[in-house]
Design brief:
Layout lengths: L1 H23 L3 H24 L1 H4 L7 H10 L1 H14 L1
Keywords: Membrane, Transmembrane, Transmembrane helix
Protein name: Pro-sigmaK processing inhibitor BofA
Organism: Paenibacillus plantarum
Length: about 90
C-alpha cells in the first residue's frame, strides 16, 4: 500500500516540476497552445471521418496511436492511417 502512495507521489511531484519548467520559459506557452490546438483538430478530423463512415466505409478508431499520428502529421497522417488500414485488411 505504501508503494502505491509513493508511486503516486513521485508522479504528482514530477508532473508539477515539468509544468513549472515548461511555463518558466517564454516560448513554451505558445508551444503548448499549438500542440493542444493540433490535438483538438486531429480528434475532430477523426470524429468527422468516423461520422461519415456510412458513406465512405472508412472507420478509424480514436485512440492514442491514431490521434498522435494525426496530430503530428496532419491530414497526410490521416491518409496514411487509411492506407495502412486498407493494406492490412
Amino acid at each position: 500500500m505504501i508503494l502505491k502512495y509513493t508511486i503516486w507521489g513521485v508522479l504528482i511531484l514530477s508532473s508539477l516540476m515539468l509544468v513549472m519548467i515548461v511555463f518558466r520559459s517564454r516560448g513554451s506557452g505558445r508551444l503548448v497552445a499549438s500542440l493542444g490546438l493540433n490535438v483538438v483538430v486531429a480528434a475532430f478530423l477523426l470524429y468527422i471521418l468516423n461520422l461519415l463512415s456510412g458513406y465512405t466505409h472508412i472507420e478509424l478508431p480514436i485512440n492514442t496511436a491514431t490521434l498522435g499520428t494525426a496530430t503530428i502529421l496532419g491530414i497526410p497522417g490521416v491518409i496514411l492511417l487509411i492506407g495502412v488500414k486498407w493494406a492490412l485488411l
